[in-house]
């Protein structure tokens, strides 16, 4: 994916912090090159029997060509190196990208390109399902990779930390201000938040990446009839697809202004942010509404498996609070999933496939996670005037009886007229 803005000379990203001093270098980043890359931690340490775990950082709004926020993973990396079982089961990679250059969808395409590139050079990596741990906008980019660019076949698990599934009103402009001011919020609070958060970066709501994060208005919160140009059609379309929700675990924090919010607080941005979203009736982590981070539906129920953490702001939901509570849960969810396998189903023609004993019905392209060792029966059902013409794909598919282990089984059901 080429850089879509001019005026920048070629730069090289050399990252030597984090991870026991092991250098990780991404070449060819900058003008005329790529806006991101897949970087391997400890490249001299083979993947072996481990599962690739890709860490994807969040959005950096602080410049028009804003560097990757890899430092947000410092605490988790330290935890990883102190945990023998995590080290034995996972090898860490980073998907790094510059913010405010290319859209979330383009970054999702780049993530696909980089993962495929790694697989082409490393057959072991190519043979393994991957897991992704993503903070904030990094989860949005990963969802684009999964849903728009075929990553669903590769990703076994996505754990998101404060990801704005519905966006956040902060990414909006006049529609956000109109609602907040009507709720009696002083205009100065909005001004202070914008000056602290956006600095010299995404100061207008149409800026790429900020526009990717505008509220999808699933709940009718904003008056978009007055501000139709602030509608986030891309995110609305992404959220219509529920095919891969079973692959997701969503973490969210809640943060309320309190003693931490004096004028010298390091959390000042979150203090103003929490006050603004609170005026709209939204529990939040200082940047992202709880309903967005937990991917609620219009009835207020989570669409994915979720965990919430009280008194965690948007940075603490990735960095933790120094007591390992957050990381212990992440550890549990990763280790619980590492022994699972993936069943991919593709329906060619008009019909459905039902997966028993779970009763899951697939009428297109579907991907499911199951515990290793599980036996499944695939039952095809053609639509009227169509007939089932057999299975293609992995050999285990041909009789409709599939055993799931720790890898991926891909089956195609063929229906013809």
- Determine the structural class based on helices, strands and strand pairing: alpha/beta
Strand line-up of the largest beta sheet: 3-5-4-6-7-8-9
N-to-C series of helices and strands: EEEEHHEHHEHEHHHEHHEHHEEEEEEEE
Low-confidence stretches: 1-24
Cα-atom radius of gyration: 22 Å
Mean pLDDT: 87
Count of DSSP strands: 17
What fraction strand? 25-35%
Sum up the overall morphology in one term. Answer: globular
State the separation between the terminal residues, measured CA to CA.
Answer: 41 Å
Number of helices: 12
Specify the biggest β-sheet.
7 strands, mixed
Helix amount: 25-40%
Give a written overview of the molecule:
There is one protein chain. The protein is built from 12 helices and 17 strands. Residues 1-24 have low confidence and may be disordered. The strands form 4 sheets. Strands 3-5-4-6-7-8-9 form a 7-stranded mixed sheet, with helices on both faces. A 4-stranded mixed sheet has the order 13-10-17-15. Helix content is 26%, strand content 27%. With 417 residues, the chain is of the alpha/beta class. The chain has helices at 74-81, 84-89, 104-121, 123-127, 137-148, 174-182, 187-197, 233-239, 268-279, 290-293, 316-319, 325-338; strands at residues 10-15, 24-30, 36-40, 51-56, 90-97, 130-135, 155-161, 248-254, 305-310, 340-348, 351-356, 360-362, 365-371, 374-382, 387-393, 401-404, 408-416.
